[in-house]
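Following up on my earlier thread - several people asked me to post the actual chain instead of describing it. Fair enough. Here it is, all 190 residues.
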Amino acid sequence: MSSRDSILENIRKNKPDPVTLPDVPSFTTPGLNLLNRFVETAQKNGSTIITNKKDLDQWIKLQHPGTRRILSLVQGYEGNIYPDPDLKPKDLKHIDLAIVNSPLGVAENGAIWLSETDCQWRILPFIAEHLLVFLDRNNLVSNMHDAYAKIRIDQEGFGVFVGGPSKTADIEQALVIGAQGSRSHTIFLW
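Reply from S.P.:
Thanks for posting it. Predicted structure:
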C-alpha cells in the first residue's frame, strides 16, 4: 500500500461522528419599521429614493434630460432600446439609463437583490451610467439572514446585492462615484 493510500485509509477510518447542526435563530428586529430603515440606509449608501409615481416621472425628465439611450425591463416604462435577448453584453456599453425590477430590498444595509431574471444580462446594472430600480415596498426584509432565506440562488445563474452607486476611494484617497458601475442609483418604492 502506498503512503497516499495509507493516509486516505486512516482518514476514512477516523471520521468523527456526525453532529446535528444547531437551529439558526431569527435575527429579525421586532417592531422595526422596515420602510423607514431601508430608506435611511439606502440614502446613506448614496441612493436616491422616490416614493410616488408623479415624482418618478418628473425625476426622469429633470435628472436625465439629455438621456438618449434608455433600456427598460419594467412594464409601463419604455426605453428607446429594445431589450433584444440577442444583444451581447458589449452592445450595452452605451446605455445611459437602465430601468429594472428588484424582488427584494434589505433594510439593514439598503441593498437590493438583482438576478439574471431581473436584469436579463449580468452586466446591465454595472455598465449603465444610471440605474433606476423598481421595488415593491412589501418586499423589504429586516436583514441579510432574512434575505438569504427568501432568495433562490439555486434557480438563477447569477444574482447580486447592490447597495447604492459604485464607489471607490482607492484613487488618491478620494471618493469616486461610478468608477466600476453606475454613477447614480435610484430606487422607486411603490
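The chain has a mean pLDDT of 89. That should answer part of your original question.
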